[in-house]
Design goal:
The protein is α/β, with parallel strands linked by helices. It is built from 26 helices and 16 strands. Strands 7-16-15-10-14-11-13-12 form an 8-stranded mixed sheet, with helices on both faces. The protein has a 4-stranded antiparallel sheet with strand order 2-3-1-6. Strands 4-5 form a two-stranded antiparallel sheet. Helix 6 (97-107) crosses helix 9, helix 12 runs antiparallel to helix 13 (313-331) and helix 17 (533-558) packs across helix 18 (575-589). It is flat.
Length: 752
Amino acid sequence: MANDAFRRKYTMRDVAGALFRRKGLIFGVAAFCTLAVAGVTFLVPPVYKSSATMLLRLGRESVAMDPSMSAEINPVLSLGQARDAEMKTEMEILRSEDLAAIVVRELGPERVLREFGPDQVLHKPPPASMSKSEVLGLAVREFLKRLEVGAPVQGNTLLVTYEAEDPNFARYALSIFLDRYRDYHAEVYRSGGSSVFFEQQTHALRDEVNALEQQLSEYKRETNTADLEGERALLMERLKEARAKLDEVGNSLDSSISKVDFLGRTLAELPQEVVTGRVEGVANSASEAMRAKLFELRVRYQEMRSKYYDDSLPMVSLKREIEEAERMVAQEKPYHAQKSFGLNAVREEIRGQLLAEQAQEKALGVQKAGLATQIDAMEWQLRRIIEAERSLRSMERERNIKEENYRKYAQLAEQARIDSALVDKRISNLSVIQAPSLPMKPYKPKKALNLAMGLFVGLFGGLTLVMLMEIMDQRLSRPEELAALGVTALAALPKFRYVSDRISIESHPTGKSMLPDSPRGAPPMVAGKRLPATVAQMPLLRSFRVLTDRVLVKSLKEGDHKSLLFTSSNAGEGVTFIATRIANLLASGCRERVLLIDGDVHSPSLHSFFGFSLDTPGFIDLVSGKAEIADVVRRSLIPGLDIIHAGQSGNGHMHMPSFQMLQAGGMSKLLKALEGRYDHILIDGAPIQENSSALYLSKIVDGVVLVVEAEKTRRQVVQHTLDLLSGVNAKVLGGVLNKRNFHLPRWLYQRL
């Protein structure tokens, strides 16, 4: 948990402070790297670079394929792709070990390794145990190491350079290399032995093409199909017309069948005879007879009325007959039309149409059957033509393939013949634009660049080292780090030094120098400038006043703490310095009685601060029972401040009071007695980890103030001290970060 709490959160101010605190290390690393690079730069021999430029023109290598490859395997590329590929190919040829071996053999492996020049200095002599082949391999690797080939992104030029410690040898070696490269380039593109092969293949393919041509002519003559495509087109046109005619006849036949069916049904519905004439106004004899009969019945009815009653049976019967006669007379018309009948003319006409349509139907049926037979014959003929055409096309395709191969092999044979002639004549698309130059100035080392890089690497390495050291640094340097350990940061006291022959506030101030209004010694030095003493002491005095106030507030808040122990983890962290000044401020500012005890009898210092001698009784004598309180208390020059120095035993040797001695001597009772006489008791204690008496004192006093020296005391040490204090139930009021350095300039500190 403590490790997690102590993880720092760095700010820009912390980073800048770390850089300023270790600026000497940064500049030292930068200076070391710069000097090291400078030494190497000025000690290594200079290297010269000879350069040459070649032009790669559009030639046979750009547009022709390898004659030994077919078009399917090596397809023709676009000009841009071919140029890019050719440039890469040429660069690979230039870097070839075989080419380098040819050049090295001509130059001599030993000359390459010693970089043959006027001085004849053997810079890299091969071991005597190496064979000639091994020496040659070593020289080839050295030659390729110093050879550089490059090409621009856009362009047709190649830049070739060679480095050597002698400028004449660099130009000479590069000249030999370019001469041998042209020969090697021609050999690479030579198609050796391919001319005879291609000529043989050309003659064989020509014979096969002639044989296929003769076979094709005989087949056309046998099948009598000179123009299969024309016959097929004509036949397909006739077949198309016949099918269209068949569709038309079929549609007409269907229409005729429908018409015959309709006429037959219509003829069946018409009568054979119809009314041919009609005579109106002819008298109806039946109606006249019935009217006469009705008249007779009415006359009879009148005659019988005189004889019978109306409801008699004869009268009723007669009355019914009269009513029936009247009904029948009413139904019959007095006049009617007379009709004459004959054959139905419409029926006869439809019958004639039916007979004609039936004849048409039979004729269309016969025509349809004929067209179907004709179409079948034409389709059979079309299939025969298609089959013949397929066979003919297969034969022509084979003839075309052979013919195409014949043309290709003829072209390749001609290309092989041309390539062979070009190689023999050393004709190439390569030309030297710039011959190998004689370098006048060394190519490397580049002194200015190397020094700049050395300085940069040194600064970067110094910064990196400083940041790593800052991250890994476990020393406490900020009040926040005290708080991370669970200790209240009471104050952070700056580090001041009085420049004087006799006085240093940090190490040995006198009693009068502790007075806030009467500093002694020369003015202090702050950032290299001498300031007036009153001005220079003001930050330190303000810090002590703040510390004193916080100690008092902490004491009042947690109880009436009269006795306070000032201690540290290790010696030399400024416990005495802080205890004396707080006692001074309490006595002079609060007007209270203060007792200051030197509890560090192993390394006493209060007596020198106040000008007392250790020959008189002190704290160790009081604890051991050899002296009383009145014998050990000394008055200081500061009103209200009394001192008990460490003291000395009777044999003149200083003894360190142990845990058991303090307990046996009744230190707790002595503190109670002293608390009755003084308002504040301050004990300048020994380091916790060096003296067990400090632990006992921390247990019996009212409060403990832990002093930590900034940028010196490690976190683990402070944590161990706190664990020891916690083990004896000591009341730690807080910690004081002493001797804190402010590495940043004031103007930068205020802006971060």
